[in-house]
Amino acid sequence: MREFFIRHDRTIHRLLEILPGFFSWNLILFPYWGIFLIPNIVAYFILVFNLYWFYQSFQIAVSAIVSHLKIQASINYDWKNDLKSFPDWQKVHHVVIVPTYKEPLYILERTLSSLANQDLPKKQITVVLAMEEKELEKERISKVEALNKQFAGIFGNLFITVHRLAPGEVIGKASNERYAAVWTKNKLVDESGMDINYLTVTSSDADHKFHPKHFSYLTFKFLDNPDRYQYFWQPAVMFYNNIWELPAITRVPNTFSTIWNLAMLSRKDRLLNTQNYSLSFKLLDEVDYWDPDKIPEDWGLFFKAYYQKRGKIEVEPIYLPLHADAPQSTSLWKTLKNQYEQYKRWSWGVSDDPWIIKNYLLTPGVPFWDKTMRLIFVLWSHFMWPVNWFIITIGLTIPVLLNPAFGRTVLGYTVPRLSSYVLTMALLFLLVIIFIDNIYKPKRPEGYPLWRALLTPFEFILMPITGFFFSALPGLDAHTRLMLGKYLEYKVTEKV
Q1: Is 343 in contact with 477 (CB distance < 8 Å)?
Q2: What are phi and psi of 408, to 5 degrees?
Q3: Is residue 5 in some structural domain?
Q4: Considering Cα of 361, then 363, then 367, then 371, what sign does the dihedral take?
Q5: Quick one: which of 102, 129, 132 has its CA closest to 115?
Q6: In a domain, 388, yes or no
């Protein structure tokens, strides 16, 4: 099989690229042609899916509560004091790579300030501001001078790298991070003699705010884990930096994304690194860093390490919040556009699936059950992304209108009503989301009308609209582009 795949690699890869879009479109359209040919199967399919959605909603609610309780315990725990039980805790050094392109100065200041506020000695932190050559030199220099003036002498190092796009690379976070990480390894390990065995590296977006205990927590988990070179560490990314400034129609999906990220922390079977994560520098170096020719970099790096290490890679949660910006712009229309583009970029993670599938089939020595469950989770997450909304929201409504004769049958009458009841019951779990959201969301800013804040929970009536425009549509867009070979280009989320 290996020889066959090697001989026909390009053809097989292209067929695997077509697969997600083919699957999504066919599953979306299935109820509309199936209602005429196999209406009973369509009805049972939708009912079973709605029951599954109820189960998933229940799991998310329970997992979110579990994660919340663990986060509260971690916030109140003195991680720094516990570090003293390790005689070598001061040897651990954290490299934080912050890719940036045209980020406003105040965003970078906010991120670096959160690093300067860590309870771990700041000399154990190296910040790498990974800039792009294509940004105007005058603007780059201006920001670098301001940051050097403000944060001089605070960290172990404050490095500035300038990435020039090389042949074979694509524009994006991965190529920039790779350049910055290789440069930093040469600087710290090869030239300064730091022990790579005590180095971690954190991939951070430019708008991320770290909890003050983040790196004391990470240091403890790193030293306490005998398999530390086979692990990623993942915090709860919450899109709360500017949550009160968003229009309701984008505040809703960002709230859901936040609670989803939080819930996943306590789901070891589903937890993968995303957006902001850490790993040992040794592991990063051994697997040859991020792939510079890919846009998706988080799951891509995990599975690159997973297959190279024959399945001996895990993700461990950091039960601490990490705040990030939600897409925002100078007008409602531009904000909506930015939000759409961000979700489309996230859904472009489906472009990793062909590579993951091929490695699943061809990489020897990986435990069968573990790699199979991980593959199922990835395919289900990606393939169903555009499909969920159509089945849950529309269900049998339009298909029955197309075939009213089936609607008059016992099954045609019963299933839509039973499905509606199941989905209504699933909405009860929305109360958990509202509860947890109110705990972690920043306090209402001064000047924000109280009446608007009190109406915030009622914004969730927008879910059918936001689900279509910021989930189903960008997902279908990404799947269709991949199916047609119209590859996505990386677009930086605008900051205002």
Answers
A1: no
A2: -90, -5
A3: no
A4: negative
A5: 129
A6: yes
Tens of pLDDT along the chain (496 residues) come to 777 777 888 899 999 999 999 999 999 999 999 999 999 999 999 999 999 989 999 999 999 999 999 999 999 999 999 998 999 999 999 999 999 999 999 999 999 999 999 999 999 999 999 999 999 999 999 999 999 999 999 999 999 999 999 998 998 899 999 999 999 999 999 999 999 999 999 999 999 999 999 999 999 999 999 999 999 999 999 999 999 999 999 999 999 999 999 999 999 888 999 999 999 999 999 999 999 998 888 999 999 999 999 999 999 999 999 999 999 999 999 999 999 999 999 999 999 999 999 999 999 999 999 999 999 999 999 999 999 999 999 888 888 888 998 888 888 888 888 888 888 888 888 899 999 999 999 999 988 988 888 888 899 999 999 999 999 999 999 999 999 999 887 666 666 6
CATH value at residue 449: 3.90.550.10
Alpha carbon 479 to chain centroid distance? 18
Domain count, the chain: 1
